[in-house]
Amino acid sequence: MLTLLSTLLGFFSSGLPKVLDFFQDRADKRHELDLVRIQNERELMLAERGFLAQQRVEEIKLDQVEMEGYFQERQALYQHDIEIGKGASQWVINVRAMVRPTITFGLFLLLVIVDTAGIIYAYSMGVQFTDMMEYVWDDETQMVWASVIAFHFGTRAFQK
Asked: Are residues 84 and 103 in the same domain?
């Protein structure tokens, strides 16, 4: 019996390092997989940041090219205006300069006249002020007036 137990104990004890190595190897492989996963995540994060940085650099370059193109376009327009004005009388130059303000003031006067007539008519019909203002200063009128203001002042404000 003792022989049988010592044989079994010797058999199992000789295999014990292999069993322990198996568990140790499994833990080592799990640890290596975790390290590889972390390293891959880190590389992906760095690649993404690098890509975003590169994308931002490209956007800045594109903005710069657009600004240079806009500047060249404005310079060409100014040069074109100078060329057109050469040899023209001062009267023609002044008339050309008054086109935008004339359109703006004309539309403003038209707005004032139409709104004043609408207010007078609504008042004579006994319409309440709040109801009258909904019809006189409606969304469409606001959009038209915003377009007129943007037409006259917008280009100059955004150029500076």
From this structure: no
Residues 109 and 76 in one domain: no
| pTM score | 0.44
- How many structural domains does the chain have? 2
- At 60-92, the pLDDT tens digits run 888 888 888 888 988 888 888 778 778 778 888
DSSP state, residue 151: I
Residue with tokens 């006994």: 126
Q: Do 10 and 66 have their domain in common?
A: yes
Q: DSSP letters along 65-78, please?
A: HHHHHHHHHHHHHH
Asked if residues 94 and 81 have their Cβ atoms less than 8 Å apart, the reply is: no
Q: Which residues contact 92 (CB under 8 A, 6 or more apart)?
A: 85
